[in-house]
Amino acid sequence: MNSQQKTVLGVIVGNRNFFPDSLITQGRQDILDVLKEQNIDAVILDEQTTKLGAVETWESAQKCAALFDENRHRIDGILITLPNFGDEKGVAETIKLSALHVPILVQAYPDDLGKFGLERRRDAFCGKISVCNNLCQYGIPFSLTELHTVTPRAESFRADLQRFVCVCRVVKRLKNARLGAVGARPNAFNTTRYSEKLLQAVGISVNTVDLSEIFGNAAKIGNGDQRVKERLESISSYVPTSGIPGPSLVKMSKLGIVLDDWMQSYGIDATAIQCWDSLQHNYGVNVCTLMSMMSESLLPSACEVDVTGVASMYALQLASGKPSALVDWNNNYGSDPNKCVLFHCGNWAKSFFSDVKMANAEILATTLGTENTYGTVAGRTPAGPFSYARITTDDRHGLIRAYIGDGRFVDDSLDTFGSRAVVEVPRLQELLKYICKNGFEHHAAMNASHTAKILSEAFTTYFGWETYTHGPS
Q1: What residues contact residue 326 under an 8 Å CB cut-off, 6+ apart?
Q2: What is the C-alpha separation between 386 and 207, in angstroms, rounded?
């Protein structure tokens, strides 16, 4: 389910038979209309299979569960709608019988103070509490709307639904992610250590390849190979390459071909590549531009074999549908306690920049030589929304932890090189203390969005990770 694929929700309409049938009929139609408007497909009982196409008995729960089971490979999440009090057992037993382990959103209708007679009274305010109580008893995790009761046609519910679709995307794709570790962790970077086994326990697989295989396969490709010519064209159309030596561009092209072939062979969703400094020593270029191109194509790529870093990038991308980047929390911004500089040599997706060019890694060049460090993407991120996230495997305690939050990119002056940004984060000093005290890495993932709320719900409710959400107050 990529960000362009249509979302499919299993829909449970809860009912109690002593409430008017008209409430169910209208409520069912409201939900279907809103889902259609949002380009969401529904798997829902028809009105002939059960009374009004709703769930209220053991028999109707069995029928709804069977329908969900038939469509289990399509269903990304479940929406429970309560036009009236609903049947708490019927809802919970439907989900239990279906054996679907997907995100669940519970919505309940509000009552109208002017229509409190028997013919229009709903009591869904109370019924929602009972349904949630049963879901908790059954050990079924679920999400809630922002308001306790809300009509499906309200803007508040539409926002709830949009967030929920993103939560579904994060959960479905992240728990089946296939990450590629290209090369060994640089010896100087203990900070990028991680546990493959803890990741595998939540469904995230890591596939590895040695840099010697990558370099060896690249060396077998001739300079005149048609694929090299095509890759050179794609690089030059992606980023201006004025001043970059031709041989360096050819090396990048061959490297890109080999990486693409390997990723396709293993179904890789995201990569973490050894860079500092084997690529420069042994191959003679930076891989930053290729990583930038992959991230821009929603195949996120991180450096220094930071596998949990690229998992963080992938999570943010799934939440927003936009490219992510790996950054260093790198510098203070003067004396402003709530601003700092984000930096990396130059592997950010070009959509982070208003103006971009290919350059060389100036810091690496001081020890490795300029001729070996061409291939970075240099640019400055303009003002806009900013989300950050970091997933880490806490091997000492055998668990996965994360932190997330929202801030903003700002246009404050910054005279330096590489991929860079100035950000403002409320209570930044508290966040930095949390990062340091809890042993998080100096790398974080960033995205040009405000998606912390989505990741908080996905990480805590459906993955069960210990997650710190940094808020404005």
Answers
A1: 302, 303, 306, 309, 310, 312, 313, 344, 347, 443, 444, 445, 446
A2: 30
Helix, strand, coil distribution of the chain in percent, nearest 5: 40, 25, 35
Which tokens go with 361?
């890694």
CB-based contact 61:26 (threshold 8 Å): no
Note whether 396 and 323 are within 8 A (CB): no
- Residue 3: its pLDDT value, please? 47
Query: Which amino acid is it at 426?
Result: P
Quick: pLDDT tens for 300-317: 999 999 999 999 999 999
3-state secondary structure 149-169: CCCCCCHHHHHHHHHHHHHHH
CA 425 to CA 339: how far, in whole Å? Answer: 6
Separation of alpha carbons 314 and 172, rounded Å: 12
Per-residue confidence (pLDDT) for residue 1, from 0 to 100: 40
CB 379 within 8 Å of CB 348: yes
Q: In whole angstroms, what separates CA 450 from the centre of its chain?
A: 12
CA distance 182 to 257: 14
Q: What is the pLDDT of residues 162-211, one digit of tens each?
A: 999 999 999 999 999 999 999 999 998 999 999 999 999 999 999 999 99
Instruction: Please give the structure tokens belonging to residue 426.
Output: 């409320």
7-174 has CATH 3.40.50.10940 classification: yes
The pLDDT value given to residue 115: 74
The residue ranges of the chain whose pLDDT is under 70 are 1-4, 117-118, 473
**Interatomic CA distance for residues 460 and 462, integer angstroms:** 6
Sequence-separated (6 or more) residues with CB below 8 Å from residue 110:
122, 124, 125, 149, 150, 151
Where along the chain do its domains lie?
Answer: 7-174, 178-470
Q: At what angle do helices 58-70 and 88-98 cross, to 10 degrees?
A: 30
CATH number belonging to domain 178-470: 3.20.14
Kindly report the backbone phi and psi dihedral angles of residue 465, in degrees, each rounded to the nearest multiple of 5, phi listed first: -85, 145
Task: Round to whole Å and give the CA distance between 77 and 141.
Answer: 12
CA distance 30 to 157: 12
Summarised one tens digit per residue, pLDDT across range 353-392 is 999 999 998 888 888 899 999 999 999 999 999 999 999 9
Closest CA relative to residue 324, chosen from 3, 40, 1, 8: 3
